[in-house]
Amino acid sequence: VQLQASGGGLVQTGGSLRLSCAASRNIFTFNAMGWYRQAPGKQRELVARITFGVGGTNYADSVKGRFTISRDNAKNTVYLQMNSLKPEDTAVYYCNARDWNEFWGQGTEVTVSS
């Protein structure tokens, strides 16, 4: 399984970015997909996840109301729309998918300047 993440970049405080994670197989074969991030010197943390069985989503408290995770079934792609970005959102963002195993995409770097 390959997960191809893209969409990171440099943005000013208050700006927006959309991350994409394209999977090499039908995303409904996974139980869930999500985005994690790791800032310098910090542990990797869950940002947002979408669960396909029940169709639910969950978000880190720090991003609720600003980030939205969504999917495009036809493109086998999961997105993370990030609005009202803050400097503390600066991190490397990783795409994740789970079935009986766990898969990671390469990271995409997001830098929010103040």
Gap from first CA to last CA: 37 Å
Helix-and-strand structural type = mainly beta
Largest sheet: 7 strands, mixed
* Gyration radius, in Å: 13 Å
Strand tally: 11
Unreliable stretches covering 5 or more consecutive residues: none
Instruction: Work out the oligomeric state of the chains in this entry.
Output: single chain
Structural overview:
Strands 2, 4, 5, 6, 9, 10 and 11 form a 7-stranded mixed beta sheet that branches. The protein has strands at 3-6, 9-12, 17-23, 32-38, 45-51, 57-59, 67-72, 77-82, 91-98, 102-104, 108-113. The chain contains no helices and 11 strands. A hairpin with a 3-residue loop joins strand 9 and strand 10 (102-104). With 114 residues, the chain is mostly beta strands. Helices cover 0% and strands 54% of the residues.
What can be said about this structure in brief?
This protein is an all-beta fold. Helix content is 0%, strand content 54%. The chain is built from no helices and 11 strands.
Topology, please?
Blueprint: E1 3-6, E2 9-12, E3 17-23, E4 32-38, E5 45-51, E6 57-59, E7 67-72, E8 77-82, E9 91-98, E10 102-104, E11 108-113
Summary tags:
single chain, mainly beta, 7-stranded mixed sheet
